[in-house]
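Objective 1b. Sequence-to-structure analysis of Mitochondrial uncoupling protein 4.
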Amino acid sequence: MSPAEEERSLPLPERWPRASKFALSACAAAVAELVTFPLDLTKTRLQIQGEAAAGPAVPYRGMLRTAAGIAQEEGVWKLWQGATPAVYRHIVYSGVRMVTYEHLRDSVLGRAEGESFPLWKAVVGGVSAGAIGQFFASPTDLVKVQMQMEGKRKLEGKPLRFRGVHHAFLKILSEGGVRGLWAGWVPNVQRAALVNMGDLTTYDTVKHFLLLNTTLVDNSVTHSVSSVCSGLVAAVLGTPADVVKTRIMNQPRDKQGRGLLYKSSMDCLIQTVQGEGFMSLYKGFTPTWMRMAPWSLVFWLTYEQIRRLCGVTSF
């Protein structure tokens, strides 16, 4: 049998390992996103709530009252408003970050199979993979954030900006050009780098620590413990940048696509801290953490289960 025929006889995951893991990651992320999306919507509304630069302060509502308010005032299904671009985002973001992290870890940073991986190398791989994945996915994140605020605009008597996901993409493109689709990409990439430093790095490190130093085996218990740890660390590291990202993406813009409230991510950070205090950078932390832990759990359990069914090699 010739090498070409031998290659064609291999299972698809072995012939196209990176493409298979991209598809696997995208499927797992879509499931996790849909299950936990109401917490993401609640987090976004909390991060905008009380925005000092946007006008008079409004009475603060916590996580539960915000979620209940959305359901009562706008309808239960509005808790999933913006879910479509969120799924689009994760198809790009999760697929790219997983494939990039594995490539960096195995080919660039040189982790040998079955051996411990230095924490600093895991951090470098996680930060780089998150930044690259989020840069490509930033336009979908922009649409998601703006669509999540449409229900609030309707309640305030303001005209709706978009008729749907594709109209949102076209409108942003027509008003701000290609650069307009990447509005807020700097804090977005910063957030993703920090979140992935917490998520991928912690999951990978905890999982391999448990496998090498305890009696646990590669099963759902190991995945669950690793997921809970990675979700908590990711929320602590990523929430401040997430608040800045959300506010920059949601701010009104002029005809040239320039923000009317903030000049840059640093300007947004300074205005937020000066106007609302340092802890305002952790607005939405509770739903962020409550979402990241189950999101990470659903993602990794789905990923591992599909991986085994498809015969893809372990993460």
